[in-house]
Structures are given as C-alpha cells and as structure tokens.
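Morning. Coffee machine broken again, so started the prediction first thing and wrote up yesterday's gels while waiting. Chain of 287 residues, entered below exactly as on the submission form.
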Amino acid sequence: MPSMTPEVMAARHSARYRRPMPHAPAVGTLIRHWRQHRRWSQLDLAGEAEVSTRHLSCLETGRALPSREMLLRLAERLQVPLRERNQWLTSAGYAPMFGERAWGDAALGAAHGVVQRVLQGHEPYPALAVDRHWNLLAHNRAVGHLLQGLPAELLAPPVNVLRLSLHPQGLAPRILNLAEWREHLLERLAHQVQASGDPVLAALAHDLHALPAPQGRVPRDPPGRPSVAVPLQLASPAGTLSFISTITVFGTPVEVTLSELAIEAFFPADEATAAALSALATQAPPG
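Came back before lunch.
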C-alpha cells in the first residue's frame, strides 16, 4: 500500500475531478459544437491552438481526454463564454474554474459600487445595467423619468429591456423611428445569439420577432442625418428626445456574472435633448 505522501493525496484529489459529471455532454461533443458554431474547420482550430489535427480529432471523438490546460486553450481560441468554459471543464471531469454568483451577492459588492458610480456619473443622461439576457439589473434616475406612465406589469421584475422597448404597451408607441430602432435591436441580438449560442437569447429573439412591427421599409440613410450611428428617438412631454448609445463591459472578468454584465449609456444626439434632460433632472424622481 503506498504511503499517503502529498503527491499521492494530490493525485487522488485530481482523480476525483477527472470523472465526468453524470449526464453531462461529452467534452469532445462540446468542442466540436463550438468549433462548428464558429464555422472553423479542424485545421483552423488546430492551427490556432498549436496542436495537430489528428490530436484535435481524437479529442472531439472522445478517443483522447484533453488536459485542463488544453481545454482552456481551445476555449480561449474559440472565444467560448466563461459559463460554457465551466461546462467544458466539468464535462471532462475537472473542477469549474470561474465562479458564479447572483448579482445581489455581497461578494460582488465592489462591482456593485463600480456600476452605481458609472450609472450615477452619467446623469442627467439615462444609463442602465443588464445581464446576459437583457434583464434589467440597475438604472439611474434619468431612466426612471423615461419609463413614467408604462403599465406596472411591464415594469415588474425581471424587466427585459428589449421586450420593454418593442412591446406595443411598452416604449414602442413612443419611439418615433420604431422600424429603424427595432431592426437595430434585432440585428444586435442576432449577433449575440451567434456569438454565444445561448438558447434563452434565441428564444427571446423569436419572441421579439413575433411582436407587432411597423409597416414599410427601414430607411438606411434618412435624409438630413449622417449615417454614423442608429439613434433612438423618443416622444416625450419635453419634446422629441434623440439618443445615441454605447455599451460598456468589464474588461478582464474572471467571474461568470461580471463577464455577462453590460452597461448601456445613452448620450444626447442634439442640444435640445441635452437641455430637456437637464431640465428633467431638476424634477422630483418618479415614484
């Protein structure tokens, strides 16, 4: 019987993780799925990951079990999201590498502080934070002003920002360039579905396509406006508000929730909008 040296104990601990999780997809199937999802050949991926095509073929067919380092290298080259990288690791029998916490977890307190500072610092202009499925996590006071008068059932958590924007009882009737903005949102969502392979995002895209759409073709270059960015034009008691938006993400996340969080900030596209938002900021916040 071998003595219980640190080396033997480490080997036994590692062996426990090398057993694939019950009912988990074979890791080779996951590698092949993401390679095909990215429309790469085995030769493409092998070249990027600096392995032979024969070895990659063996990994995909299950004739060889990848090391932890090889899995992470392949996932990095294929730009696999952190959530799915954990699935790769557990399917191969390794421990997950990337933590995942609920947004309300105290361990994410520092990230909460960063998000709140960004949102508040953007006032008097609207900004909001969303999760990977476009569910609202936080917003500043300016967003509250723009949502006034919407049905309570549409504002009950979880609020899906895309559905709220395109729903006929939501913001859709207030969006003056609805056809153009709708096409922009659906195209952006389609890119996310393609990049992530997320079935929940795919279902959301299906639901949004089913919502009523305005008639007519979308003008690609409306007269009098340079084609720089698609604006959001909202009717409001203060007049027409015109915005352009930016998306901000955490630069080097190693936690699943943070890797999937995004902040969308809206900037005034003209001086009239800037003045109207500054005036709104002096009013009492919506109840």
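The chain has two domains: 7-91, 106-214+225-280. Going to sketch it on the whiteboard this afternoon.
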